[in-house]
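Problem 12. The chain below contains 301 residues. Write out its predicted structure in token notation.
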Amino acid sequence: MEIFKKETHIDFMGKARMAIMCSGLLILASLASLGIQGGMKFGIDFAGGTLVQLKFESPPNLSDIRDSLKDLGLADSTIQEFGSPNHILIRVERSQGALEEMGTTLKEALAKRIDPDTITVERVEMVGPKVGKDLREKAMLSILYAIIGIVIYISWRFEFQYAIAAIIALMHDVMLTMGAFSVMDKEFTLVVVAAFLAIIGYSLNDTIVVFDRIRENWRRRGKASLISVINTSINQTLSRTLLTSGTTLLVVVSLFVLGGEIIHDFAFALLVGVVVGTYSSIFIASVFLVFWESRSKRKKA
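Solution.
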């Protein structure tokens, strides 16, 4: 199956400078957002504390919930809707005894202002500060180990410059996805880490397909320049790239729209990652190969 009946002849490398400028601006915006926000907004998995999910028969008055938390000495807790106005998430920054006790205590405090028969404690989760710190470190290490493994594999499968180009593209994808999370004020949780690892794998697969075609065409290039070879290779794989990304996006959009709040952030990360990963495979990784060749020529000269 092909999108284009004939091979396209789009000058991707001719648009590379504009693409790099756009990427640079987006990365700066991401870093600015992270700086303003004070870094990523860690979820309970990493930050530690207690999370309580409540269901009400009718949308509650948030000020009543806030006053009830003040009575418990938990005025600094975060209150937010979860999917619908009837579902409320309460995040307490510190761990509060046993899980069952926390749910019961909170329901009893709310009973002073809201009919307790209309309140259902659906979920209570608790993570200690030490456990949260340990999970955060292991999550970062998992991403680091994945990148190191990629460098080793691509250096062996292709050449070292291809590995560096792939890593630059992956870092580009991760930074833009993190920036999207910061701008949208979404939490960074273990589920999101899984999504980031999936993004790295997806983006790498797309990049390797393009690299493989570049290497094949470079061996029989004749008098063609590297820019010409890269343009030809990207055009030859364009139909496959768009088909793969398009079918993946159909699934991810379905998860994002219909999957519910539990996997909403996971689907959002994949949605951003697939779009950015496809873009970086075409522009960011390939542009670095051109830069590497020109640098090598200057050294020889």
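Discussion. Strands lie at 41-42, 49-56, 78-82, 84-92, 119-127, 187-188. Students who got a different answer should revisit the alignment rule from Section 12.3.
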